[in-house]
TrEMBL record:
SUPFAM superfamilies: Quinoprotein alcohol dehydrogenase-like (SSF50998)
NCBIfam families found in the cross-reference section: assembly_YfgL
Residues annotated as signal peptide: 1-24
UniProt xrefs under Gene3D superfamilies: YVTN repeat-like/Quinoprotein amine dehydrogenase
Main location: membrane
The protein's name: Outer membrane protein assembly factor BamB
Pfam families per the UniProt record, alphabetical: PQQ_2
Domain of life: Bacteria
Organism, scientific name: Marinobacter persicus
Length: 390
């Protein structure tokens, strides 16, 4: 992740070759932690590639988070060089492709009728989800790097300067705007908002998660995930970089130098919390909670009482993606393009596959049949199947 000042200072360089390494309590002249080497493991699980397709130039050396959208029936993926592709999740066949003249900075987002992207020039574009072309576009006050999110009636976009804006999906008319105060120095990452039928939940660089009325944008509640502490701007970073996870009537969230918490979705009241520091949102599976810590540890917590079950610490500082749970396994990607498969039971490393030398930044996803959807930094969109050796 790169650091960014509010408004438009995209020229700031990444901390370490574009890698996500900001350390709690460090100053700007301290040595950045070095990633652990790829561990040698006894593999008992193979990752077989089922299909793959190319989506333009992927992130094209931009520090973006162009995560594909998967809704069970279709996958939408976008590349920085303007390619938007609709893909059949069963076999990887392309249903349609659109090429924009502009570069893409955020997206895609989608609903039942349209696909949404944000360009480098800060324009929100709506395209028909049948590939027939652009429906409308509107200008944003500054750039956005988080995917637009829609409930079919409104589409919400969060910009890097702390503004959350809602637009009518029919014609792009502005509906409302909410502004949060953000620190001078923040991580170059923004969690995509959650958009429901009557509530929108957004996470900001000031460490707050805010729920707003979908109709009017009025705040309903706010929850402090991280409290800035320390003397330097780096020490005071409390960004929420991963999209919160909705669980029935609650929402689970994790922040950098903050906590992992479960919050009542209607009242904003904390149900429970524990200290945590992560650039990613949590995952659940088999009654457990899984989190990729900012230091590269993968942590498993028992869902019933949040007690630590195991910690996998052989991937330290490898800038892991959010965990994905498939069957008996947990899968994470890393900055060098490796997929790592962990056993849910004890966290042992049981499988490994190098899928892309350009690295993996966006979270892997689990398809309906249990296969793993991977979108690499260089634009390779692929499905992998976990196979246990006999």
């Amino acid at each position: 992740m790169m650091l960014t000042r509010a408004f438009r200072q995209r020229a700031l360089a990444p901390l370490v070759s574009g890698l996500v390494l900001v350390l709690a309590g460090c100053s700007s002249n301290e040595i950045i932690e070095q990633p652990d080497p790829v561990p040698d493991i006894d593999e008992s699980v193979e990752l077989d590639r089922v299909w793959h397709t190319s989506v333009g130039d992927g992130h094209d050396d931009e520090f973006l988070q162009l995560s594909p959208v998967y809704n069970g029936n279709v996958i939408y993926a976008a590349s920085a060089d303007g390619i938007i592709k609709s893909v059949n999740p069963e076999n990887g066949d392309t249903r349609w492709t659109t090429e924009l003249d502009e570069r893409i900075f955020a997206g895609p987002g989608a609903d039942g009728g349209q696909v949404y992207v944000v360009t480098r020039d800060a324009e929100l574009i709506a395209l028909a989800n049948d590939g027939s072309g652009e429906q409308w576009r509107v200008s944003l006050p500054t750039e956005a790097i988080a995917s637009p999110q829609s409930n079919g009636s409104l589409v919400a976009v969060q910009t890097i300067d702390g503004r959350l804006m809602a637009f009518d999906t029919g014609d792009g008319e502005g509906l409302w705007q909410y502004e949060a105060q953000v620190p001078v120095l923040t991580m170059r990452t923004t969690a995509a908002p959650l958009v429901g039928g009557d509530i929108v939940i957004a996470s900001f660089a000031n460490g707050r998660m805010v729920a707003l009325s979908a109709e009017a944008g009025q705040p309903i509640w706010q929850y402090q995930v991280g409290q800035p502490q320390g003397r330097t701007e780096l020490e005071r970073l409390v960004d929420i970089g991963g999209q919160p996870l909705v669980l029935d009537s609650a929402v689970m969230v994790a922040g950098y130098q903050g906590k992992l918490a479960l919050v009542d979705i209607r009242s904003g009241q904390e149900i429970w919390s524990r200290p945590a520091s992560s650039f990613n949102g949590p995952a659940i599976g088999g009654g457990n909670i899984y989190l990729s810590d900012a230091n590269g540890d993968v942590v498993a917590l028992r869902g019933s009482d949040r007690r630590e079950i195991w910690v996998q610490d052989n991937l330290s500082w490898r800038q892991l993606t959010r965990p994905a749970v498939s069957g008996e396994f947990v899968v994470v990607g890393d900055y060098e393009g490796y997929l790592h498969v962990l056993a849910q039971e004890d966290g042992s490393l049981v499988g490994q596959e190098h899928v892309d030398s350009d690295g993996l930044r966006v979270p892997v996803q689990v398809l309906r049949n249990g296969d793993i959807l991977v979108y690499s930094n260089d634009g390779d969109l692929a499905s992998y199947r976990l196979r246990q050796d006999d």
